[in-house]
TrEMBL record:
It is a multi-pass membrane protein. The gene is prsW. Pfam families: PrsW-protease. It is found in: Cell membrane. The keyword Endoplasmic reticulum does not apply. GO terms for molecular function: metallopeptidase activity. This is Protease PrsW. It comes from the Bacteria. InterPro entries: Peptidase_PrsW_arch/bac, PrsW. Involved in the degradation of specific anti-sigma factors. Belongs to the protease PrsW family. The lineage of its organism: Bacteria, Bacillati, Bacillota, Bacilli, Bacillales. PANTHER family: PROTEASE PRSW. Its EC number is 3.4.-.-.
């Protein structure tokens, strides 16, 4: 019974956040099987990420900046970006800017959910700690997914600035992911004083991206025309 309780506590934050961002799609929700497929891919890339990170840790110096921005943020966000670019970017279901956010959040939360499950079973000490992880790493990955997906959507539907936004779709979440880890590493005793305003800022920024992506959907014009006819 305790096994099931811990598992549910570890999985619930990722599933809840994915549902939240999935339902924020105003005009044309994505095929649920494709969203879950990307979530599963996010789960699967945890294993090669762990292997590569271990190798990089042994190959580099013990430097907080390198670990935060290259080994953690750089590598994790690159693998997510790689999946999205080669599986979703040219997919026919990716037909409005907000779709990039849905799929990027799905990959990110798949990654975060397995990471949370591993932590829960190998480092579990209290339920309150799992709640803290829901606020920090899990929601952090969701935010990084929003930022990545927003720029992927801009790249796909604004060809004149495609290269710029493709680059931003990797480097923007990589930077904020690196900052997230750097704060935790560099300020082990008083990280909360920096992390709380940091997370609030990122959540506000992310919600603005969500609203902006929805507001630029080409499907909103079709929806309005249908409403007028009715």
């Amino acid at each position: 019974m305790q096994f099931f309780s811990i598992l549910m506590a570890a999985v619930a934050p990722g599933v809840a956040l994915l549902a939240y961002f999935y339902l924020k799609d105003r005009y044309d929700t994505e095929p649920i099987h494709l969203v879950m497929k990307m979530f599963l891919f996010g789960v699967l890339i945890v294993f090669p990420t762990m292997v590569l990170q271990r190798a990089l840790v042994h190959a580099t110096s013990d430097d907080p900046f390198s670990f935060a921005f290259i080994i953690s943020g750089g590598l994790e966000e690159f693998l997510k970006w790689f999946l999205l670019y080669y599986i979703i970017y040219r997919h026919t279901s990716f037909d409005e800017p907000y779709d990039g956010i849905v799929y990027a959040v799905a990959v990110s939360l798949g990654f975060a959910t397995l990471e949370n499950v591993i932590y829960a079973f190998f480092n579990y000490s209290s339920f309150s700690l799992l709640l803290l992880r829901a606020f920090l790493p899990v929601s952090g990955h969701a935010i990084f997914g929003v930022l990545m997906g927003y720029h992927l959507g801009q790249a796909k539907f604004h060809k004149e600035v495609e290269t710029k936004h493709l680059l931003m779709s990797y480097f923007v979440p990589m930077f904020w992911h690196g900052m997230f880890d750097f704060i935790l590493i560099q300020f082990p005793s008083n990280w909360a004083w920096l992390m709380v305003p940091f997370m609030i800022y990122l959540w506000v920024r992310s919600i603005k991206k969500v609203n902006r992506a929805n507001s630029t959907s080409p499907l909103r014009l079709i929806t309005r025309e249908d409403e007028v006819k009715i």
